[in-house]
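hi! just following up on the protien thing from before. the input was this:
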Amino acid sequence: SDLYIVGYMPQALGEVSVNILYRGSPIRGCPFRAVFSEGTDKRSNLVASSKMYSTLNQEMEEVNQYLKQVNDGLSVPQFKGDVEALIGVMGHLRNFESKEQEINLKCDSISAELGFLKTYGPKPIDKEIQKHESTLDLKRSVEILGPDVRHSTKNPVDREIKNVRTKVNALDIDVRMFAKNFYQSEFFNFALDRKST
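and the predicted 3d structure came back as:
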């Protein structure tokens, strides 16, 4: 976990896509998007600027809120036959699984930024580091809880799917019987009508 500082000097104003390779392979999160515009205060581009601190705190808050929401969603008690709760828990699990790589990337980025600021920043960031460690603990909790939830919900989900299939099959049989009886009675009525004429 070495720290590398990468600089980039834009050739023109506008949006750019930056690829960073380490030992010939792109680092996680590549390509990075950056926008360069006129009139930007030079201090905004400093690595330890106040803008970086506010952006960092905003990113930490977003990740923390997302992980709290997922953790709360995965922790909903499930009772036998409570399909709604089961669907909600499975939705939170799928949501986390779909965003896990993005969350890992954000956490890595935050860790790197905090490491840099701790070493080179103009002010102490102990509070931010403590907040991020709390977020990482929450992330580990969700990563542990996810497989447990998947395992504990597998049988109830399979059971509910089987119940739904059984009901659909029964409904299908009822519809077929109704259609058969309807056509038989219509044929019988048609035969009676023809006989009477």
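Residues 11 and 36 are 10 Å apart (CA to CA).
The chain has a mean pLDDT of 79.
cheers
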